[in-house]
Every structure is written in structure tokens, then in C-alpha cells.
Specification:
With 181 residues, the protein is α+β, with helices and mostly antiparallel strands. The protein has one domain (2-173). Helices cover 16% and strands 57% of the residues.
């Protein structure tokens, strides 16, 4: 069990760091493609990444919780446009595909579903928005787990944060999750 605990990271920092790193890498690649271009240039990156992770589902095993080992594919899509005024506009989309696993305590089967998507815009200053819905749907009653986050930040040309919102929630439910508007 010690080995598993060392491999588990809190979902919130991992997701946030992964999104920010991915956005930065796409921007660097995009800027090198069209540095001096006077017209808009769009770069699209569409990849599938093998995924193998452990998630703790606190509502599983009658409320005792259990670790779930999940594996499958993470679909990642980035579209970045460099406009004629020197700005950039990125859209990103992360979605588990065929991600499933087994509870290490109960042996229950789980499916990972959801989507993280958002935008990143800038020139001098920047703006980023994303919404994350990540669900681990378990076999039987009482072991469905959801992570939901709405995030937005705006930084002006002076480097000052002028808007910041970060709503984060983790819920256990015994029924299927409703869609968020």
C-alpha cells in the first residue's frame, strides 16, 4: 500500500499543472511556426496519450473508500491561432476514452468519463478559462465520484491579476451525475 500512496497525487494540482504546461508548450510551438507572419496562422495538435493512474474514491466500499487503478487513453486536442495583431488564441480539450479500472479493495469495476476544456488568449497580458468534469462511475450503489472545477484568470498588460475565479468541488453520489450547463 505504501507504494501506491507514493504514486497518487491530488487531482486538482495535477490537472491544473498539466493544462498550464500543455498550453505553454503549444504556444511555444505555435510562436515558432509563425513569428513574423502578417496573417492569422492556426496550428492543431490532436493526440492520444496512454494513461495509467490511481484514483482514491472516498465513497466506495460502503464509505470506507478504495483506490482504483485506471487505464485507457486520454484524448488531447489543442487548436492555437496566432492573429495578425500579435495575439494568440488557444482552445484545449482533454477527454478520457476507454478508461476503466478495478477497485483494489472490492474488485468493483469503474469507468472514467468527463471532459476538461477551455481557452487561453493573450497578447500583452492574457486570459485563461477552463471547466473540468472528471467522473469515476462505479459498479453498484454509492460509489460514483465526481471532480468539478470552473477556473478563470485575467492578467492585464501590467502583469496585474484583474479577475480570478476557481470553483472546485469533489462529490460522492449514489446515482448518475446530471450534466452541468
Amino acid at each position: 500500500m505504501i507504494r501506491i500512496r507514493n504514486q497518487i497525487l491530488s487531482a486538482r494540482p495535477v490537472i491544473s499543472r498539466f493544462v498550464l504546461l500543455a498550453v505553454a508548450l503549444v504556444l511555444i510551438a505555435s510562436l515558432s511556426v509563425a513569428q513574423a507572419s502578417a496573417k492569422a496562422t492556426t496550428v492543431t495538435d490532436n493526440v492520444r496519450i496512454p494513461t495509467d493512474l490511481f484514483v482514491f474514491v472516498p465513497c466506495a466500499a460502503g464509505g470506507a473508500g478504495e483506490f482504483v487503478q485506471l487505464s485507457g487513453t486520454l484524448h488531447v486536442l489543442f487548436v492555437t491561432t496566432l492573429d495578425s495583431r500579435g495575439g494568440f488564441h488557444s482552445k484545449f480539450h482533454f477527454q478520457p476514452q476507454g478508461v476503466s479500472g478495478t477497485g483494489l479493495t472490492t474488485g468493483a469495476k469503474y469507468q472514467a468519463t468527463g471532459v476538461t476544456q477551455g481557452t487561453f488568449n493573450g497578447r500583452v497580458g492574457f486570459e485563461q478559462t477552463f471547466v473540468n468534469n472528471f467522473r469515476i462511475i462505479g459498479q453498484g450503489p454509492g460509489n460514483n465520484f465526481m471532480i468539478h472545477e470552473n477556473f478563470h484568470i485575467t492578467v492585464n498588460a501590467n502583469g496585474e491579476v484583474t479577475a480570478f475565479v476557481d470553483n472546485f468541488s469533489v462529490k460522492c453520489r449514489s446515482v448518475s451525475y446530471p450534466s452541468y450547463p
